[in-house]
Specification:
Chain lengths: 281, 272
């Protein structure tokens, strides 16, 4: 197979595998661990509170403590540390490094110079204030991302969707996201099967232009399929009494363990808040 | 007073105004009856089921359901619409169309929740269905993780939980293994014995006799060409052959090759 076709093949298989593994597997959420046993509403609220605390944290030590707390939670929830670190650090360049690196230099953050070097004919100086700011920023991002990833890993996605309802997000919006989630998987499977069908018929000898043509045609076909599906699904909803305002099931049940967890997190965050405040004074 | 649930006279329907799907359908379905619609692919069976479930409406002809003329604008009335949906339930041909919620439980409960059935009653019906269909373990799973047989059971559960008087099924056994097919047939027979009217579209001839009192045969030109008792229809090989429901089949017996029309029913007789 030509280099270009390999590119199409790798991109397709990579995207499909990523979607299946990361979005649809719910594997970690099915483990019997501490976070998995909590009520998703209580868990989401406590994680949001922790993220708020991270946003207002003013020193790296507090952030480091919260990060360690997050790693401990991952550990007691049966999540392999290596897997968790890989999952969280993969987002780092995307979210923070590109912003944090320029902030190191005196051009953007003037202050006390702690080191200089020459690059591209320019002298670049790193400042203490720049370094502190960048470290704080990266620490804040990695800790927040870790809490978000931990929440999504330990909660089944449908439960997370249901949690959105308690934040008074319109029912129709939550339902639409739920249906998207449901049908993206179906379309991923169609893509996968279509690709295999093409591969079985055309073998290896496809020109780059022909490959482009096949991919474009399949995008159009998939769009048409999704459009047909949309009408049929709507009929299936009407058939079971849907009239434009979905009525949904509320079946969350908070247990004593959830209230104890909520109390613990509130006390811990309040403690961190007061320690920070007293240190500032 | 007659006990007719559906009375269709000269019903026509076309897709996009130019592709005919039903041509002059006359059909009457009585309360408690088991009715099958058989015909080749694209003969109009599914379209008729959608008409019976008032998802689409005849362009020409008349349709009475429970003695009342059915018109599209009547469904703007919430009480009328809810009453109709409680009485008539449709199991779609493609389970992926009907299972649109993130979990099996939400899919099963979607209907009764929309129709305002009380929580306690929903729980009672759910428990009953879970044990009948043996799907308790599937409740918290997303539909995309289910096998085709499990999906089919869940779609039937999601319709049966509404407890409709009329259960309409579009190819309920397509693609299923023999055991799951058996479960579904038994379920339909039990539902009929409890008083429900069962309307099934299929081209799976080996299930027709069990699930039908009356059979309507659809031809490729979107008409009903013959109606009658199940055994009468199944014995009319020429009719089945003319409507693509049997095929010529050859096999060996004692070094002798037999060629004859092959019906997909449980037993067939060899002349030699």
């Amino acid at each position: 197979m030509s280099k270009h076709n390999n590119f199409i093949e790798r991109s397709l298989i990579g995207a499909v595998t990523f979607l299946k593994e990361s979005i649809f597997s719910d594997e970690c959420a099915s483990h019997k661990g501490f976070l998995q046993s909590l009520d998703p509403r209580v868990k989401t609220i406590t994680f949001l509170l922790a993220i708020l605390q991270i946003l207002f944290a003013k020193d790296a030590l507090t952030l480091a403590c919260l990060y360690v707390f997050c790693l401990l939670l991952a550990g007691v929830s049966g999540i392999h540390l290596g897997f968790f670190l890989k999952r969280t650090w993969v987002f780092m360049p995307l979210f923070s490094l590109f912003i944090a690196i320029p902030a190191l230099f005196s051009v953007f953050t003037p202050g006390e110079v702690i080191g200089s070097f020459r690059a591209f004919g320019l002298t670049l100086s790193i400042t203490r204030q720049g370094l502190q700011g960048a470290v704080l920023f990266v620490a804040r991002v990695i800790t927040s991302v870790s809490f978000v990833v931990l929440l999504s890993l330990t909660t089944k996605h449908f439960a997370l969707l249901k949690v959105l309802r308690i934040f008074k997000i319109p029912q129709i919006f939550v339902m639409t996201i739920g249906m998207c989630y449901r049908y993206i998987y179906l379309f991923v499977e169609i893509i996968e099967n279509t690709y295999l069908a093409i591969k079985s018929r055309v073998g290896t000898g496809v020109s780059y232009k022909r490959g482009q043509h096949i991919v474009a045609w399949n995008i159009a076909y998939l769009w048409q399929r999704s459009y047909q599906f949309n009408e049929q699904v709507y009929s299936a909803m009407l058939s079971r009494g849907y009239r434009g305002e979905p009525v949904v099931l509320h079946d969350f049940k908070a247990k004593a363990k959830d209230w104890i967890w909520l109390l613990f997190v509130l006390s811990m965050l309040a403690g961190v808040f007061f320690i920070q405040k007293s240190r500032a004074l | 007073m007659n006990n007719h649930i559906f009375e269709l006279k000269d019903v026509h329907f076309t897709y996009l105004g130019k592709y005919p799907a039903l041509r002059g359908i006359d059909i009457t379905i009585k309360q408690g009856e088991k009715v099958s619609l058989i015909g080749a692919n694209g003969s109009g069976k599914s379209t008729l089921l959608h008409v019976l479930d008032a998802l689409i409406f005849p362009e020409k002809g008349s349709m009475k359901v429970f003695g009342e003329q059915v018109q599209e604008n009547k469904f703007n009335d919430e009480a009328y619409s809810k009453d109709f949906r409680k009485k008539v339930g449709l199991v779609f041909q493609n389970p992926d169309v009907q299972l649109f919620c993130p979990t099996v439980k939400e899919d099963i409960l979607f209907g009764p929740l929309q129709l305002g059935i009380g929580k306690r009653e929903i729980d009672r019906r759910l428990e009953e269905l879970l044990s009948i269909l043996n799907i308790k373990d599937l409740l918290e799973r997303p539909p995309h993780q289910l096998s085709i047989g499990e999906k089919r059971k869940v779609t039937i559960a999601s319709t049966l939980i509404i407890d409709p008087e009329v259960l309409i099924l579009d190819e309920p056994t397509a693609g299923l293994d023999p055991l799951t097919t058996r479960h579904i047939i038994d379920l339909l027979i039990r539902a009929n014995e409890s008083g429900k009217t069962i309307v099934t579209a299929t081209h799976d001839l080996h299930i027709v006799e069990e699930i039908s009192d009356v059979v309507h045969v659809f031809s490729q030109d979107k008409r009903i060409v013959k109606s009658g008792l199940a055994h009468e229809i199944l014995e009319d090989t020429e009719l089945l052959k003319a409507n693509n429901l049997v095929h010529i089949h050859s096999h060996k017996h004692k070094d002798k090759v037999h060629v004859h029309p092959h019906l997909h029913i449980d037993h067939h007789v060899h002349e030699n």
